Amino acid sequence: VNEIIKQSGSSISIGESGDTINLAGATYAAAGTNTPFVLAMNSATQSLSTGTVTKITFDTEVVDTDGEFASSKWTCGTAGRYFFNCTMELQTMDNEKENWMKVYKNGGAMVPTFTLVTAKSGAAYTNVVSIMINAAASDYFEIYTVQNNGNSRNILAESAVWSIMRVIES
To answer: Model confidence over 46-83: pLDDT tens digits?
Structure first.
């Protein structure tokens, strides 16, 4: 037999309770896809006041497969495990000044989902958060940042990028 074709009903059964199905040496395609998938970024420079927790503006949706991203916020439509990757580049900072970036879930900071970067004088730098997150349908997520340079600093245009992908587990 080269194919199993459903003759009636809505499912196909292989074997019976207690049977072992051996796929050794075979290739197979898992059901499901890694959607939703979101890729959003900032199109313009965003100013950050010193010592003020600020939501990062992701105003350009490059990809939003399920229409779940709006107003710099992602709202989960399908419960599951998700991989988040967020990067941003901040303009030059003074020596020994810091910046952190955090994932917020349903309005509150998730711990320990943050990165802290200590700058060397005169250098722009990139801050990155990469994490796996469990999300229920209707949970919403945002990315916030704060810097302590003593004066305003900018997230550089087109340098804040946030990608979100559902992880299919077998």
So the answer is: 999 999 999 999 999 999 999 999 999 999 999 999 99
* pTM for the whole structure: 0.76
CA gap 40, 98 in Å, rounded: 25
Q: Which residues pair with 80 in a beta bridge?
A: 135
**Sign of the torsion angle spanned by Cα atoms 133, 77, 79, 168:** negative
Cβ neighbours for 160, distance < 8 A, ≥ 6 positions apart: 41, 42, 46, 56, 57, 58, 86, 87, 88, 89, 143
pLDDT digits (tens, 9 = 90+) for 111-159: 765 666 666 666 677 788 899 999 999 999 999 998 888 888 899 999 9
Distance set, CA 96 to CA 56, 117, 120, 127 (Å)? 23, 9, 6, 15
Distance between CA 170 and CA 168 in Å, rounded? 7
Neighbouring C-beta atoms of residue 41, cutoff 10 Å = 19
Handedness of CA 93, 98, 103, 107 (dihedral sign): negative
Q: Which residues pair with 89 in a beta bridge?
A: 126
What is the three-class DSSP state of 61? Answer: strand
Total number of residues shown for the chain: 170
Of 139, 138, 168, nearest in space to 35 by CA: 168
